[in-house]
């Protein structure tokens, strides 16, 4: 995959509040993003427990995304202290 890098780092996620509800993943997406929809479908097809947060133009969940991912890119998958995103 040329030009794509995955970054896994432990940001301070305690202020997110929604992370790891009973072992659930947290997926930040934009429904307009093809890669976001692919990540969403993967989690659905594999029947993984996750909470979905749609980061839309209103910026309602932008602060939560900024806490998890300083690059503010989607999709962004949070699993406890592990964050995976594309930049």
TrEMBL record:
<feature type="domain" description="GST N-terminal">
    <location>
        <begin position="27"/>
        <end position="86"/>
    </location>
</feature>
<dbReference type="InterPro" id="IPR036249">
    <property type="entry name" value="Thioredoxin-like_sf"/>
</dbReference>
<protein>
    <submittedName>
        <fullName>Uncharacterized protein LOC106181075</fullName>
    </submittedName>
</protein>
<dbReference type="Pfam" id="PF13417">
    <property type="entry name" value="GST_N_3"/>
</dbReference>
<dbReference type="InterPro" id="IPR004045">
    <property type="entry name" value="Glutathione_S-Trfase_N"/>
</dbReference>
């Amino acid at each position: 995959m040329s030009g794509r890098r995955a970054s896994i780092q432990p940001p301070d996620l305690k202020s997110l509040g929604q992370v790891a509800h009973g072992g659930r993943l947290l997926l930040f997406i934009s429904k307009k993003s093809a890669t976001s929809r692919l990540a969403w479908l993967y989690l659905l097809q594999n029947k993984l427990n996750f909470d979905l947060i749609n980061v839309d133009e209103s910026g309602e969940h932008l602060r939560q995304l900024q806490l998890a991912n300083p690059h503010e890119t989607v999709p962004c998958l949070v699993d406890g202290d592990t964050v995976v995103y594309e930049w």
